Amino acid sequence: MSEDMNGGFEPVIIAFACNWCSYTGADLAGVSRLQYPTNARIVRVLCSGMIHPNLVIDALTKGADGVILCGCHLGDCHYIDGNEKAERRSDAIKLMLGDFGIEEERFRLEWISASEGPRFQQVMTEFTEQVKKVGPSPFKA
Amino acid sequence: MARLAEEWFATCAGCEVTILDVGEPLIDILKQVSIVHMPVLMDHKLYGQTGEGTEMEIPEADIGIITGGIRTEEHKQIAREMRKKCKTLIAMGSCACTGGVPALANLYTTAELLEKVYRGSVSTDSNGVPSVDLPELTDRVYAISEVVPVDVSLPGCPTTPETVVAALTALLEGKPFTLSTKSVCDECPTIRAKKSVTTLKRRLEAPEFVPGRPLSEMRCLMEQGFLCHGPATRGGCGGSEGTPRCIRAYMTCEGCFGPMSEKANPMVDMMGALSTIGLDPKQVLDRAPTFNRFSGAGGRLRPLPKR
Fold it and tell me: A83: which chain B residues are within 8 Å (Cβ-Cβ)?
C-alpha cells in the first residue's frame, strides 16, 4: 500500500499506543466513527514506557515511513511513571535520528487520553500529512 | 597434528601478545599444532621466499586465525585466500570481529583521512600522499565476516588468554565453541538500584568504593554517573572468574567485547539504557563513536553529513 488512488505516496506509519489511555482513545475514535487516514498500523502495548529506542529505530530503518508513540498524559500513567520513561527515551531517539540519516519529522511522541477520541483522529491526520510531506523513508529498498 | 595459519591486517598485535600471555597452557596447545604460516612469527612469505611468486601462497591449514580488520585491498585478497585454505577460520580480537579501533576511521571518507594525515595537520611538512607500491585503501574498514564467512569470532581488545585457550582447545577436540550471550551487566557483581544520578561524570573522578572490600559492595558505576558500556556489551571477558575485567580494576566497561549480537547497535542500546535510569543522553558528546568505539564496521559508523 505505497500508492493511493491518484498515484501519490502513502506512508507506512507504525503507531505504538498504550493500552490504558491511547489505545482506548483510538478505540473511542473508532466507535464514534471518526474518520482518519488508514496509514497507521496500531500496535497495542501495555505502557508507552516499554518501547525501547531499538524498536523505533528498527521500525524506521526497516521501511516504516513514520513512527508515533502515544501514551498517557504525564501524571496519569497506569504504572505511575512509565510515560516519564517514554519521554526520556523519546529525547534519546530524537537525538539519534540524525545519526541514521532519518528526518526528525518521522518520529513523534504524543499524550492521548482514553476520552480523547477526536484528538486521536486529529493527531493521526496531522502526522500522516507530516510524513507524506517528508516523502518515502530513505531506507526503502 | 593440526596445521595452523595466522595472518594480521589492521591490527596492533595485542591479540598476538595475548596468545603469548596464555602462558603454560600454550605449551600443551603447541604440542598439538604445527604452524605453517604466521608472518609475525616465521619467515614464510606470501609470494615466495624472494618474492619470485606470481600468485599468493598460503599453505592449507586446519585452523586459520586472522587478527585486525580489513583496511586495504591486499587485506581483502589475503582474507579470501585464508578462507580458501583454512578449514576453520577464526576472527580474533575486536578489530577482526567488528572493526575495532581502526574502524573509527569510518567516520570519515578515505579522501578526508589522507588529506588530514598527509597534508592537513599543522606540523606536517607534506610531500603529498604516498602511493607508490602501496595497496589501495578500501572505502571503509571492514570486519572479516563482511568479506568472507567466519567460523569463530573471539572479540575483545585484546581478546583474553582464557578465550583463546577455550576456543583452540574446543577446535582441537572437535567440539563447538560459542560466545556468551549475556551482557557485561549480567556478570557484574556491583549493586544495582535501578536509578542513578543525573549528571555524567568524567573518568577523571574516582568512583565511590571502599578499598579492600569486595566489588559486590560497590554501587554500579553507571548509577554513580560514569559512562559504563556494560548494558550494550557482550559478556565473557571475565573468564572463569566471572567479573568483567575492567570492573575488576574499578574502571567502566569500554565495550571491547562488542555488541551482544550481530544485529545489535550499541549506540541505540546505550541511549536506551541511559535514558531509562535517568541520565540525560544529551550529555554524551560525540555519540556515535563513543558507543561504537570497537564496533565501527558493519555500517555502525559512517561519515556523517555535514550540517
Answer: none
